[in-house]
Specification:
Residues 228-520 form the Glucose-6-phosphate dehydrogenase C-terminal domain. The active site is at 279 (proton acceptor). The chain folds into two domains: 22-186, NAD(P)-binding Rossmann-like Domain (Rossmann fold); 220-393 and 468-516, Dihydrodipicolinate Reductase, domain 2 (2-Layer Sandwich). It is built from 13 helices and 17 strands. It has helices at 46-61, 82-93, 101-108, 121-138, 155-164, 193-206, 222-232, 263-288, 297-310, 318-322, 445-449, 456-466, 475-494; strands spanning 36-41, 69-75, 111-115, 144-148, 181-185, 212-214, 246-254, 323-329, 331-333, 336-338, 356-362, 372-378, 385-392, 410-416, 420-428, 436-444, 499-503. Bound molecules: NADPH dihydro-nicotinamide-adenine-dinucleotide phosphate (NDP) and ligand LXAUTJHC. NADPH dihydro-nicotinamide-adenine-dinucleotide phosphate (NDP) is lined by residues 42-47, 50, 75-77, 117-119, 149-151, 186-187.
Length: 524
């Protein structure tokens, strides 16, 4: 779905699918965007280096960027060699390496940097002048995407600065094919319901909702979108997708890394705000939502919001039975001894910040009544894996002797790594008897489509340029997420809920086992 006018790609833009390059399938020419400048606030930061510029480069390499395109970085420190630094970052973090000199050379000609403090009007004046230059010299057509790769408290000030400098106006919604002004806001969106609501109101006072793109990069992951295709692009799964057949749903977002030098950020945020409020709840909504009437931004988001509203609140004493929070202690990860969270730089020695959360949620609606959704996420767990598992109900009656060893059917959707889908079922062990064994039927994304699938940020940046908000979070959606999360924090405080401990490299604290009882968590 797109609100702006799509420009027909010029000759050579938008690659046609070929047998040699199956990745382009489903990326037909209409995915090419209209000319625009991408302005990145926070351009000297980690996200820009590791994710944004590599994504821009890969879009350029796939010739999915418009002819008139430019990148303007904005940050506080002087960066005379910004383009060179970005080249180095791309060489390090791009999924396709080494860098292609021709593709980079063309992109580099449109890369510039505006040094300035976000608090000062001069920064926006200088940015305005740079954008005018780019309109003339690079043909960016007065259209801009302002990507706010900054902490949430800086968002209102930047939007006000842009508005006062007339760089964004509600008229920049880009309707009727006019030029557009769009703002991308990174997660976490606020720190609780109240701050998210205030931020929505502040953004809404300067811009139309259709200009605001709240990004959650999990939605840009190919395999996360494939969840929707699995459900709604096939006929065989959906009839099983309900309380009649599903015993429980299990979601895991596990990382083996720690806070990676982001101790200060983590002390403010913790994993509930970093992962549960956004990535994990997004996965839950995609698994639980009803089929939307169309692949349209509002139709899809309407259905997701309904799921969030149907989540049974976890309040007061219920937090003790339905949640576990914990922090990693020193341990061994991939054969290496690693320090505990409290020994990380910029972390308080008596920190209570959670680096692991497990919870048992219920979606109180017709489809899911009585089905627990168990969710766990943590830093410094045994391995990096994100997956969604539908555990089906056990057999009502055991027909075969020797099937005791088999487990109920399970559909495992692995989001990363080794992206794919597997179905566990029972098979007969060859021989004269009737012994059964659990086996799996495996689909691997890499084997089917090639190993270098586009990164989430590629997809999402292209969607912003095209004006497609389907994979972005709407204002009511982000508030509904906080409405579920806030009472958990309140309950932890009022019930003095303990912060458990787990050794780095383990699967989390023992206390979490009770949430998945009697069958236990799956070992991915
Ligand atoms: N890093 C990641 O992997 C992810 C990050 N995010 C989100 O993205 C956002 C940015 O994260 P990240 O890149 O890690 O943050 P960093 O701390 O690495 O970068 C912050 C950027 O903001 C700039 N900045 C801060 N204050 C000012 C100011 N007053 N004036 C001008 N520039 C300023 C800094 O410039 P300078 O250093 O020059 O002062 C720097 O470029 C956060 O909201 C984070 O939650 C989301 C998903 C993943
Ligand atoms: O948003 C974030 O996500 C990353 C995990 O992303 P992934 O794509 O590697 O799964 C996480 O490490 C980080 O703490 C968080 O801010």
């Amino acid at each position: 779905m797109s609100e702006g006018k799509e420009k027909k790609p010029a000759e050579g833009q938008g690659e046609a699918p070929t047998e040699a390059n199956p990745l382009r399938e489903g990326m037909p020419e209409e995915r090419t965007a209209a000319p625009a400048a991408l302005v990145i606030f926070g351009a000297s930061g980690d996200l820009t280096r590791r994710k944004l510029l590599p994504a821009v480069y890969n879009l350029a390499l796939s010739r999915l960027l418009p002819g008139g395109f430019a990148v303007v970085g904005v940050a506080r420190r002087p960066k005379p060699d910004f383009a060179d630094d970005m080249r180095e970052a791309v060489n390090k973090f791009s999924r396709r390496r080494p860098i292609d000199d021709a593709a980079w050379g063309e992109l580099e000609r449109g890369i510039s940097y505006v040094q300035g403090n976000f608090d000062e009007p001069e920064t926006y004046k200088a940015l305005g002048a740079e954008l005018e230059r780019l309109d003339k010299e690079r043909g960016t057509g007065k259209s801009r995407v302002f990507y706010l790769a900054v902490s949430p408290d800086q968002v209102p000030g930047i939007v006000r600065g842009l508005r006062e400098a007339n760089l964004v106006t509600p008229a920049g919604a880009g309707r009727n094919g006019d030029h557009f002004e769009r703002i991308v806001v990174e997660k976490p969106f606020g720190e609780d319901l109240e701050s998210a609501h205030d931020l929505n109101r502040e953004l809404g006072s300067h811009l139309a909702e259709s200009q605001i793109y709240r990004i959650d990069h999990y939605l840009g992951k190919e395999t996360v979108q494939n969840l929707l295709v699995l459900r709604f692009g096939n006929t065989i799964f959906e009839p099983l997708w309900s309380r009649q057949h599903v015993d429980r749903v299990e979601l895991t977002v596990a990382e083996d890394i720690g806070v990676e030098g982001r101790g200060k950020f983590y002390e403010q945020v913790g994993i509930t705000r970093d992962i549960v409020q956004n990535h994990a709840l997004q996965l839950l909504t995609l698994v639980a939502m009803e089929p939307p009437s169309s692949w349209d931004a509002n139709a899809v988001r309407d259905e997701k919001v309904k799921v969030l509203r149907a989540l049974r609140p976890i309040t007061g004493k219920a937090v003790l039975d339905h949640t576990v929070r914990a922090q990693y202690a020193a341990g061994v990860v991939r054969g290496e001894h690693v320090p505990g969270y409290r020994e990380e730089p910029d972390v308080a020695k008596d920190s209570k910040t959670e680096t692991y959360v497990a919870l048992k949620a219920h979606v109180d609606n017709w489809r899911w009544s009585g089905v627990p959704f168990t969710l766990r996420t943590g830093k410094r767990l045994a391995k990096r894996v994100a997956e969604v598992v539908l555990h089906f109900k056990p057999l009502p009656h055991g027909l075969f002797r020797g099937q005791d060893g088999t487990q109920p059917n399970a559909l495992v959707m692995r989001l990363q790594p080794d992206e794919g889908i597997s179905l566990r079922f029972a098979a007969k062990v060859p021989g004269s008897g009737m012994a059964l064994r659990g086996v799996t039927m495996d689909f691997r994304y890499g084997a089917a489509f090639g190993s270098s699938t586009p990164e989430a940020y590629e997809r999402l940046l292209l969607d912003v340029l095209r004006g497609d908000a389907t994979l972005f979070t709407r204002s009511d959606e982000v508030e509904a997420q906080w409405r579920f999360i806030d009472p958990i924090f309140a309950g932890w405080a009022s019930e003095h809920a303990k912060v458990a401990s787990y050794p780095a490299g383990s699967w989390g604290p023992e206390e979490a086992d009770a949430l998945a009882a009697p069958r236990g968590w799956r070992r991915p």
